[in-house]
Specification:
It is built from two helices and five strands. By secondary structure, the protein is of the alpha+beta class. It has one domain: Nuclear Transport Factor 2, Chain: A. Strands 1, 2, 3, 4 and 5 form a five-stranded antiparallel β-sheet that branches.
Amino acid sequence: MKKQLIKFSSLVFIFLVLSCGTDEKKTDSKRKSVSKIEAKVVAEGQIESNLKSPSTAEFSNLRDTKMEKFGNGYLVEGYVDSENSFGANIRTYYSVEITVDTISGEIMYSNLKME
């Protein structure tokens, strides 16, 4: 019992030490760019919100998705397989620009096209 209490106390101590962080202050915490993975995830979220049945969505994998870097973002082009309003599974091709707003640092999308 005493050994378990010591182990538990040690784990709590380690957790507290790791969760405290550092005293360094961040002078500029605004995002300046977006990664490929972030761009793909944001693009998929926007596409999914425009689907009739988003729960059935299956997106192209990273290899089949075209990611073209420009400025502080990416042009993401891919496809999604999902059910339409009649229950038929269809493939929709999409393209969307994912960028970072230079003032707020927020990730934004524009020029969303679905065909």
